[in-house]
Amino acid sequence: MGGPLSRNARSRFVLPRGVPFFLLLSGTILLLYKADTYISQNNIGAHKNVEATPGRKFSRRIENETRHATSNNTLSKVISNGTFDRNFEITWGDGRAKILNNGELLSLSLDKRSGSGFQSRHEYLFGKIDMQLKLVSGNSAGTVTAYYLSSEGSAHDEIDFEFLGNSSGDPYTLHTNVFSQGKGMREQQFFLWFDPTADFHTYSILWNPQCIIFLVDGRPIREFKNAESIGVPFPKNQPMRIYSSLWNAENWATRGGLVKTNWSGAPFTASYRNFSADACIWSSGVSSCCSSSSSSNSSTKAWFTERLDSAGLQRLKWVQKNHMVYNYCKDTMRFPQGLAPECKIS
């Protein structure tokens, strides 16, 4: 990968020692897929070393090391809408990331030398985040468009959307993951029911103390419940920024690295619009949702206590029945010692 990369342009999926290459070369799609996932998920921690590479210089601000969860009794109405120049900053790419149309559109591009990325100016501790994306069209094999929330540090929390490109005519893989206190390996993957390159679609994260819900065009595709009662850490104390990047991951992204990036199609471009955050902004160790001002405590936000109702669960089941292609909660080959505890309640 050429040029400086943001924190999310990282080697998440480098083949670990001890994993035989025949898994990648097996004759069936199922085994190829399992190999891709195994490679991906058992090496997520490797990205922590990428930041130390020369040329990767990024300013990360942690306003306060003490993190506190907010109280739903003092929720404020904090809504960020509108322009990208007001809500985001471009962090890398040497001009490959652009804010256009008076701040209403943001584009990321990738060529053989470098990708590009941006991050939010604010950190958030709970909220409903919406972003419309139009992904790289044509032959996007080897490319990854990442869009996620993350805190800082080795024990970070993270909520991931990642779009793994593919050859022309084949579907994108929508990869989701949840980290809590530095532990991930909670992947679910989907093929979308539409062409994500033909038009903009809305990808949303609803995050509150009870659950995390991933949504596509308002349809829930995944719910990660708070399972602290059975010993599973849940992201609730560390504020997170929004990050996004477009970068080259041809060593793993498409069929475990068997299909490489076709640079004749470069530059590759992904576009963003209509960002909205109905959320609690974290600043200088204080959440805006804990403000004592009457104006900021004018309403209790429905998303703070939202869970999927019966209709939402039915829509979720439809997606998972018809479009899910990987679920860590069913992968006994990868987890022979036993599935994660939260799988019992998912």
Keywords:
346 residues; mainly beta; 9-stranded antiparallel β-sheet; 8-stranded antiparallel β-sheet; globular; disordered N terminus
Descriptive report:
With 346 residues, this protein is mainly beta. Helix content is 9%, strand content 32%. The chain contains three helices and 17 strands. The strands form two sheets. Strands 1, 3, 4, 6, 11, 12, 13, 15 and 16 form a nine-stranded antiparallel beta sheet that branches. It has an eight-stranded antiparallel beta sheet with strand order 2-5-14-7-8-9-10-17. Strand 15 and strand 16 form a beta hairpin. The radius of gyration is 19 Å and the shape is globular. InterPro entries: Beta-glucanase-like, Beta-glucanase/XTH, ConA-like_dom_sf, GH16_AS, XET_C, XTH. Catalyzes xyloglucan endohydrolysis (XEH) and/or endotransglycosylation (XET). Cleaves and religates xyloglucan polymers, an essential constituent of the primary cell wall, and thereby participates in cell wall construction of growing tissues. It is an enzyme of class 2 (transferase).
